[in-house]
Design goal:
Two copies of one chain form a homodimer. Chain A is of the alpha/beta class and 507 residues long. In chain A, 23% of the residues lie in helices and 16% in strands. The first copy, chain A, is globular, with a radius of gyration of 22 Å. The complex binds calcium ion (2 copies).
Chain lengths: 507, 507
């Protein structure tokens, strides 16, 4: 066993990134969920490092996942839209675009050191053939390109295909059942088994591996296996959390059984804040934070995060480093001993000094909170400055779409896009993690903070080279009508005539 | 070392109750405070039992403390007012009343088995001579009868006296300094030392003891010692929490050093929810719960709670038992092998079966949420029914007194006293700990729950014998002008003419 704090230089470690879907910061027992339903994750934190200041790059699925796998802000890697100002865009079935071929995804980089890579679960970086995982460096895939919305009648809209590597093996609500009434589905068990089998195989073959384990049971419609349904105090959502927690426990346990726990770096996090608009039984908790998914308040972008690597990361540590999903790219490359691409701007930092020496801090590291094409807010140290505030439109709110149920902070949770670029709203997230008490502009504290943040924002804006937006165009013809492999199954559907339009992003 | 789950029958254990002041459920690392500033309390939970469903009996200091020490609801023990409907009353300096001589406080009961009892810190059960701790069963006291408000000029209002046993030894802001500007005070260190010395002495003398350790550093004006000031990420409030956490660690460590950890039952909790109206630097966190101190929403009454007794309570357990500060009375007596008084209604239950056998649950145990003379809400299992809702008046709100900053749930956080007795608002606290989504009255779930809660409420109301309200009358003459011991110190102030009035309780 290596000493904590020392990198095993000889052979690079395996990397497992466990990415949850719409799970909130406050959904873990160790982060205060009152039902304390995550004993395995709590134990993982006790054996590893908890990072309470870990962020996603965008408050929704697709851009967050694109940022993780490219180490770059969505505004750079193209996973955003310019169809409207500050609009959240993702990859529904009608999206034409996907991850740009100019981006170099983590599994492709890891090949340089012989890593075998598998994604299990949700992809969400584009579902057309050219955008799929095996075109982007992954060697294996079991899962789906889009969210498990449905069921659809396969005429106006096809059900989402489930892929094994490059070919579909069935569809959600058909071969892969999700009971919308009871919430029963065994998908998490399938995804668990896929993960465990991959670990077994690579361990046996003594090949370094990258497992990107991305189950989506906590994304509405929330589901769980029969033996977990009704087990939690929270209803269906808590049941899903319990099943995922159980799966995490089984994966870590398998690493120990195989004797590779000291040579496998595992990171657990989520892609965005809890989707509070999904109501009490289908959404999680953002703990003490403001609002949730789709917003750039803390509830939308701060994520649960645990790093685990026995023998290397000191057990039971808490590190307050400001960190991001994009750091997982850079950090994984660093662990593998691979230099990151030098022909492009990267937003991820190498966290290994922080992970391996818990007293190390990367100071002056800002966190950028984007929504679509707009920089909404910036965090520096304990301070967060909002340059734009917006929940959603009053029209949407009136229709019952509420991103901040039960929360309302005057002038902060605004229902119109409100610009504060000349005089940003500034909060101290230590004293005020809930973003309820803006610091008075008349104070020295405000002026001091602003004078430190402003040059960082100016520099960021001035030097930013925005990528070509990939999420502007929609077309029913691009839906999952006839994915590769559909012939063998007799599941090809008729493709309608192409008729592209500019996608409309409501928020 | 005894087996966990077995009571040491031979000699009754020492009892230490650590009661914090205005500390919120969400202020502990183990309960999700993002700054994770309570390593000692987190360790205490890991070595003992965490009770996430532990409640106070009233959402403010005096009645909560009276309930703890009598095992009875304030509406029974007289610690309430009838001057207005559903008003929170306590013991400011002008209060005439105090704890009724008909009540039998815990230390008096414990004398039956030879316990020596000490209170360290805030009393708040009445400051006139006849109401003080040594008149109510305590053998020793170091602390103050009222909150540490001030400084006063000793003409309109005297500074609060600090007592050693039956005599004052100085006053806050005079001999016992609190710097309102810097927040510096060494009071917690004094209280820690008083606690440690008492433990040492009783341990040496081999006498069973009861220590009621009630520091008030987290009650506004919040204070901390110099070496803790500026240490937390949260400002002054977090500094106070860090000092209290450090003190808890020292007390538990002392028990181990003395070899009495297996014969000392320790319980940590707080007297009411975080005082959100005190703003970002002087108030704590109620985690995911609604509102705070003064209210009967979860944020006002759910408390952090840890039971610790190595060798008896299984380490690292979480028990969801609905439990209450009033249970500490009954449980302490049970541990000491003393029968509780049989001539009066007790609201506390004996938690020893739950504590010693973590799988044991006391089913069907309701929690009553009172505000003054009104039963505002009842919890049964996961369900909570609100019969009355009120934050505070619109007038107070307009003056900036906000019990729910940043939170607003239509029809729930009402600014007038709103009656729902015919059709209570019902929440499922598992799915919806934040009380944001009332269950529709049209559902079977609502009707089922109501049919189970209604008979419990009816029975409670029918059989309740309300005590004589002790907190109705005020008088400047009763203030701390000339407490016992003031002569020796030359600190007696002139007592003004008595002129009693009915106290006005604004909320
Ligand atoms: Ca998501
Ligand atoms: Ca209090």
């Amino acid at each position: 066993i290596s000493q904590p704090g020392r990198l095993a230089a000889a052979s690079p470690p395996n990397v497992i990134i466990m990415l949850m879907d719409d799970m909130g910061w406050g959904d873990l027992g160790v982060l205060g969920q009152p039902s304390k339903e995550t004993p395995n994750l709590d134990a993982m934190a006790a054996q590893g490092m908890l990072l309470p200041n870990f962020y996603t790059a965008n408050p929704l699925c697709s851009p967050s996942r694109a940022a993780l796998l490219t180490g770059r802000l969505p505004v750079r890697n193209g996973f955003y839209t310019t169809n409207g100002h500050a609009r959240n865009a993702y990859t529904p079935q009608e999206i034409v675009g996907g991850i740009s071929q100019d981006e170099i995804l983590l599994p492709l980089m890891l090949k340089k050191k012989g890593y075998v890579s598998k994604i299990v679960g949700k992809w969400h970086l584009g579902h057309r053939a050219q955008y799929l995982p095996l075109k982007n460096g992954f060697d294996e895939w079991f899962g789906a390109p889009n969210c498990h919305f449905g069921p659809y009648n396969n005429s106006g809209r096809p059900n989402i295909p489930v892929y094994h590597n490059s070919e579909m093996v069935g569809r959600y609500y058909e071969e892969f059942s999700i009971n919308r009434k009871t919430g029963e589905s065994n998908l998490t068990q399938i995804y668990l088994q896929e993960g465990l089998d991959f670990i077994n195989q690579q361990s046996l073959a003594q090949r370094p591996f990258f497992l990107y384990w991305a189950p989506d049971a906590t994304h509405a419609p929330v589901y769980a296996s029969r033996r977990f349904l009704g087990k939690s105090q929270r209803g269906r959502y808590g049941d899903a959390v319990m099943e995922l927690d159980n799966s995490v426990g089984q994966i870590l346990s398998r690493l120990r059984t195989l004797g590779i726990e000291n040579s496998t770096f595992v990171f657990f996090t989520s892609d965005n804040g809890a989707a509070l608009m999904s109501g009490p039984s289908e959404s999680g908790s953002n703990g003490p934070f403001l609002c949730g998914k789709e917003t750039t308040y803390e509830g939308g972008m701060r994520e649960p995060a645990i790093a685990w690597w026995p023998g290397h990361i000191t057990a039971g540590t808490v590190n307050f480093q400001l960190s991001s999903v994009m750091d997982l790219y850079t950090t994984s490359l660093s662990l593998a001993g691979i230099s990151p691409p030098d022909d492009r701007a990267l937003d991820g930092l190498d966290l290994t000094p922080v992970l391996l020496n818990s007293s190390h801090v990367l100071h002056h590291r800002p966190i950028f909170y984007y929504r679509g094409n707009e920089l909404m807010a910036v965090r520096l140290g304990q301070y967060k400055a909002h340059y734009w505030t917006w929940t959603n439109s009053l029209d949407e709110l009136k229709k019952g779409v509420n991103f901040c149920p039960g929360q309302e902070v005057a002038g902060v949770t605004t229902h119109e896009q409100k610009e504060h670029t000349l005089q940003p709203l500034i909060f101290h997230l230590g004293r005020d993690p809930g973003e309820k008490f803006p610091i008075s502009v008349l104070t020295k504290e405000y002026q001091d903070v602003l004078s430190r943040i402003s040059p960082i924002v100016d520099h960021h804006k001035k030097t930013l080279v925005a990528g070509i937006p990939q999420l502007n165009m929609c077309d029913v013809a691009v839906m999952n009508w006839a994915p590769a492999g559909c012939e063998k199954l007799g599941k090809c559907l008729k493709v309608p005539t192409s008729s592209p339009w500019k996608c409309k992003w409501p928020h």
